[in-house]
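=== Per-residue structure ===
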Amino acid sequence: MMKARLETEVSKYMSYVLRHAPDAAGLTLDSGGWVSFDELEKALASKYDVSRAEIIEIVENNPKKRFTLAHNRIRANQGHSVDIDLALNQAEPPAALFHGTSLTNWQSIEREGLKKMQRHHVHLSADVETAKIVAARRKGEHIILRVDAARMFSEGHSFFVSDNGVWLAESVPVQYLSRNAGTP
């Protein structure tokens, strides 16, 4: 059993190299974002005192389900800034989705909507509680935005859902956004 601090550090590093900088660990992602688990294990072992079993434990126990491990290959489920194709299928969203963010972002969002920035998609939550958890990672006061996903979808916007249940969209135009009740 590895210590929580090391587990968190290794998990964050895995997210970093599998989503943003595979070359930092000497890895090369394929077009779908996959890399050999053996290669990742070797890269992690050169940086941390961590076993194969502990890496698998990190993947399986990650509360955010950030990774998929299959057929001795691993990838991050979403949040990439490197050019990959997650081969996501379009899905019909629930009537409402939510986005947690910092209050300081509201003025820009109110003018321009939600943008994917350096990522492939805007990340949305299926419930307010999850959006609050996401917002809590941001500095300062937080707000929860409600996305009229049903209307967006009916008007031709595409939605996808990642392997770990995060809803994804190319963008969310301002006309589909409202500040959720109960937030500042």
Q: What stands out?
A: The CA atoms of residues 31 and 84 lie 5 Å apart. The chain has two domains: 4-76, 96-179. The chain has a mean pLDDT of 89. The domain at 4-76 is CATH 1.10.10.970 (Arc Repressor Mutant, subunit A).
